[in-house]
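can u pls check wat happens w/ iron/sulfur cluster
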Amino acid sequence: MNAKIKLENHDAQEIKYTTCYMCACRCGIKVTLEDNKVRFIQGNRNHPTNQGVLCAKGSAGIMKQYSTAKLTQPLMRKPGTERGEGIYEPISWEQALDVLTERLEEIRATDPSKLGFFTGRDQMQALTGLWAQQFGTPNWSAHGGFCSVNMAAAGLYSIGFSFWEFGAPDWDYAKYFLMWGVAEDHSSNPIKIGLEKLKRRGGKFVTVNPVRTGYSAIADEWLPIKPGMDGLLAMSMVHVLLKHEKFDYEFLVRYTNASWLVVQAPGQKGDGLFLRDENDHPLIWDIEKEAFRNGIDGDIAPALFGEYVAPDGRRVKTVMSMMVERYLDERYAPENVALECGLPAEAIERIALEMAHVAFKETVELPIEWTDVWGRKHDKVVGRPVAMYAMRGIAAHSNGFHSCRAIHMIQMLLGALDAPGNFRARAPYPKPIPPHQLPENNIDIINAPNTPLSRPPLGFPTRPEDLVIDEFGNPLRIDKAYSWEVPIASHGLMHMVITNATNHDPYALDTLILFMANMAWNSSMNTANIQDMLRAKDMENFGEYKIPFLVVIDAFHSEMTNFADLILPDTTYLERHDSISLLDRPISEPDAAADAIRYPLVKPDRDVRPWQEVMVELAGRLKFPAFTKPDGTPRFGGYQDFIVNYERSPGIGFLAGWRGKDGTKSLKGEPNPNQWEKYIENQSFFAHHWPDNQK
Amino acid sequence: MRLGLVIDLDVCVGCHACAIACKEWNASGTIGPLSDYQPYGAEPSGVWFNRIRHYEMDEYPNNKTVNFPMSCMHCEDADCVTVCPTGASYKRPEDGIVLIDQDKCMGCNYCSWACPYGARELDRSSGTMKKCTLCVDRIYDQDLPVEERQPSCVLTCPAHARMFGDFDDPDSAVSRTVRERSGFGLMPELNYNPTNRYLPPRSKPVIPVEPKSKGGLKESIKQFANKLVRR
Ligand code: SF4
Ligand code: SF4
Ligand code: SF4
Ligand code: SF4
């Protein structure tokens, strides 16, 4: 006898669409609600990121929503108790914000650098960065500094985009895929969807990873690299490609600076720099005109190899010649790196040659007309279908920057970049190499009371003059980013903040604000020592804590909250408005620029507030210029109002969809008062699909 | 009809998304709800309808890690049904789904001993036996959009390693895929005649290589001559 099968009571249910926040992939989710409770979370089929599927974390969002570790009200450490004891007294939001405002006003009016504001793996860096800039402190960054920064910096300084969020393998056309140091979380659903596509089409998947779990399990070939040796492996592959003359001569001439000339004057000023003309243009040797010419121009026929004597008498050499000299050295021969890499020399040589075969013998050609940077029309797009992807196994190693550069070097030699079948950029990337954004380093502006920084706290230095140091060369940032110690620190070094602030090195902070930044993760996973540091007191300063005031904002109780002096409880991702902005960490795909929102699906049952709402309120209270009307009253009614009406430059705001007064403009247009409603109507995301010739 | 799952071992990355989606759908569902013990406690555990097993085979360079999701196979000749003393465990004639009537089950464990696939787990909170229902409360729900009338684990699988369908229909996607990819059932020698099928890993692509340099590195360098390439 069959038991009766009871189906769902759909009449009591409601379906809403929002964006997952269980990791930084930001997939679209379809949420079934029943009695103001989450019944079911599934993937949104229409969403460009996950196309209907959902990973284990995404489904587990329901458990996060009902976690008993959620914070319920603002808390102040009980007077007389010590940090870490976890003894708190509840206070009202009004009291909490008054205490904080008073403290921040004082810092801002005296020495703005005494505020540190660091955030974990958040997705609102366009707002937190703007807030810090408006406050006037250079001491802001998110957690990228110990996560992806090596890789992001290597990419942004080499190819104008990078692995992780700024690019993606072209799963539709790739025939060969080499994956370096990627664990299952990166980039979760898109990679899983893509690997299946690649394998179904018969493409080869090779993984470089010390362990063979997760994605690596389904690889056609596994290279069990010794940890940290990926860079050496990549350089050996470069050796093989050069040795067998497997490189894309045209690509190197057209799209790289391999033909630029480098000054060879050991011990003298200018050694190792590009040879430049009086207008600062880099020079090449034109073999047709037999002359030094501007290496940026389109109508040149540069020598890729060779040594020349510059008009000023200095010896110069092409970049490519220098590369050949370095990497053809026996040091990089497969048989000489095999032991260090823990791999058979045969495999190193063969994989490099297999990639060369696919790149040059199985080229993809698409009949798409396009126009290059020099305005010349082409009737087809040529793609070398070797795709790569790398993540934290590369990024989080101390040698990650150079390892990742070596991987990009393979891509450049193969001509396998930003074209069909290889690794393609996602809007708003690619950007200039590196992006034209310099960190604030004017000490007078940094020290000026009640004054915003003139530039963001983070950026991409290229010269000593760009470093963020004082006249004696001391770091101006608490994390020492952009100092001589860490000059190319694209994302800052949040993992050093507690250590440096405790040691008062380079100086002491007054207040440290940490947003969703548990020390167990964001302080180099050095939990025991970090707790001691937070307990450390300054005997010269009346036994005050070395970091005098610690504010922690989080939705959940954690190792960190127990050490806070003030705890501000945040909402969960299903309870608040968020914007996943193109100004920030975008969710674009190579074929579409995209952004997304979140909006409250369930009402919080606790006395909690979204941190972005609190930030906008604090910005008004502190009278940040961008957040204040001429009459001194706050310019924005709250976060939603801010997102709709704030413009970074005319027509450019946080959300790119449904702009313009009537919501008909995409990417650029006046603010639209109904923008949030339009996003909600359209399943909480916006995608602008590029026409073929703009891809 | 003979409904069941196909699981593609060539692309299963062992991510556990299917197991969690199954939990999510069924924990607050009405058919054999599965229990969590101390979900927020020090040692969270509970009942699963679907567990991913991981096996390592052979030695480098021929080694392989195989991720192996296992749930109820909805067997044709299921001893888990015949040994059940209360009649709680039953197989539906119309579609072959094997279910447990929670009102009749007394938690005696006989069926779980009879199941060679480890598909049944005793729920310590309800004291009854639990197992995969093939999401019978989704696949027949006319109020769900057609494309969603599928098991929760199938809908969610990011690698598209899971398929659901009717094996009695020779033209169904599952039947075709099993034919094309030589899908197999587990432990046929036990004669339970399982419905679910597994697809074996594909064979590796072979890519030719064209080494060029025969001589030493000096020769290689000499080969590099400037070509006239205009930008
Ligand atoms: S991969 Fe997607 S579904 Fe999974 S946690 Fe990240 S954002 Fe959520
Ligand atoms: S969701 Fe798919 S890929 Fe992940 S473990 Fe389950 S079957 Fe395998
Ligand atoms: S797998 Fe086990 S529980 Fe499922 S039908 Fe077969 S014997 Fe019964
Ligand atoms: S079919 Fe349903 S019950 Fe069975 S394993 Fe999949 S999700 Fe769980």
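Residues 3-199 of chain B form a domain with the Alpha-Beta Plaits fold (CATH 3.30.70.20).
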